[in-house]
Amino acid sequence: MSDSQNDATNQQWGGRFSEATDAFVQRFTASVQFDQRMYKQDIQGSIAHATMLAEADVLSEKERDAIIQGLKTVQDDIEAGRFDWSIPLEDVHMNIESALTKAIGITGKKLHTGRSRNDQVATDIRLWLRDEIDLISTEMSRLQDGLIKLAASEADTIMPGFTHLQTAQPVTFGHHLLAWNEMLERDYGRLQDCRKRLNQSPLGAAALAGTSYAIQRDMTATLLGFSKPTENSLDSVSDRDFAIEFCAFASLLLTHMSRMSEELVLWTSAQFNFIDLPDRFCTGSSIMPQKKNPDVPELVRGKTGRVNGHLISLLTLMKSQPLAYNKDNQEDKEPLFDAVDTVKDCLRAFADMIPAIEAKSEIMLEAAKRGFSTATDLADYLVCKGVPFRDAHEIVGKSVAYGLENDKDLSEMSLSELQQFSDQITDDVFDVLTLEGSVAARNHIGGTAPNQVREAATRALALLSERA
């Protein structure tokens, strides 16, 4: 190979090749455009690797110190905007290594001893995702804190509960909000499970079979805050389960937030008018001056499909790959990066918006009075009087039919009107036919009684405090 040919090939791996890579192929196969966001983790991993190589007598202490100082200088340049990212150098790893070598000379070329880009990228992406999971965990806790506190303040606010989007039984707004928190609490648990499984170090697996150098994988794992090294070098470089698992978490989280968004959109409509969202989370119409559109919940609802698509993308990416690493895996980053960004944005929007919701309690109460929401309470009342449930169900059904014909809710009927359907009904029936009596009667863990809602909120806040 001539000197000119060698200069045209990638100096990091070009010894095997006799001609330069086509400019289009360089751009097509490069990942530096998007994986440069992992520069901190790449430098962090390289510092740990250099520290270990010195301990294993592969590097001298002087070489180790030069490499570490050089890497810190590279990081300073990146963060100061002085770093020129190169597409011919393909990725974040080779860009940083090339800059290091230019800064400290031939010693920089010794950094890659005992590792491959395969275990390097596997390490970087785990470190990066671990950092992002910690940020997301904090934002989830912030959202839950605001949600739970709002629920506690609305423990007495009665609203209709729905099944099939039809009025079913009265609940409280606080109880409904705590149902949202239960979804988020499960999501938080899934996220922590994901973090636990990804927190193993692949560094030292090298290309696929490990390395003949006397490396100390336990040391680099400890330096990088991993719980332990991975067990199998083949799996270490090809595993992307942690990325798939994160996207599965993200899909469920966004699915839950989409359900919340749908209710927020409904509740802000003129037809429901249950709540008001602050103006800063809404937009207007270019043609209809009266409009106040709930754009934030609508966008969160829409972004759910985007995140679901990233999960399918990663599952499809991995489904046919033989062991070990394949270039296909370069396609893991953009879906994962975008899923992380989308989750963080949606959580931030909700964490800011939810505590500022204003409940229109009088309108909610009036809505709960429509649709015979205490019908089940009347059936339960009759059962307590000794009437078989099926007979009680029929009696209440006839009472509702009468109410529809006469435009009267059950609570608005006189005692004589109710007694025409059963002589078991006495004047104590009105204790259960009121909305307040209905919600208060469900006085058990998980029930709608206001005191139970407040106690549930207290327990939920205690769980949050344990995370800190």
Set down the secondary structure blueprint.
Blueprint: H1 3-8, H2 23-29, H3 32-35, H4 39-55, H5 61-79, H6 92-104, H7 117-153, E1 158-163, E2 166-172, H8 173-198, E3 200-201, H9 217-223, E4 228-229, H10 233-238, H11 241-268, E5 275-276, H12 295-318, H13 333-353, E6 358-359, H14 361-369, H15 375-384, H16 389-406, H17 415-419, H18 430-433, H19 435-441, H20 450-467
Parallel strand pairs: 3-4
Antiparallel strand pairs: 1-2, 5-6
Helix pairs in contact: 4-5, 4-7, 4-9, 5-6, 7-8, 7-13, 7-20, 8-11, 8-20, 11-12, 11-13, 12-13, 15-16
Describe the structure.
Helix 9 links the parallel strand 3 (200-201) and strand 4. Helix 5 packs across helix 6, helix 7 packs parallel to helix 13 (333-353) and helix 8 packs antiparallel against helix 11 (241-268). This protein has 20 helices and six strands. The protein is mainly alpha-helical. It is 61% helix and 4% strand. It has helices at residues 3-8, 23-29, 32-35, 39-55, 61-79, 92-104, 117-153, 173-198, 217-223, 233-238, 241-268, 295-318, 333-353, 361-369, 375-384, 389-406, 415-419, 430-433, 435-441, 450-467; strands spanning 158-163, 166-172, 200-201, 228-229, 275-276, 358-359. The chain has a two-stranded antiparallel ribbon with strand order 1-2. Strands 3-4 form a two-stranded parallel sheet.
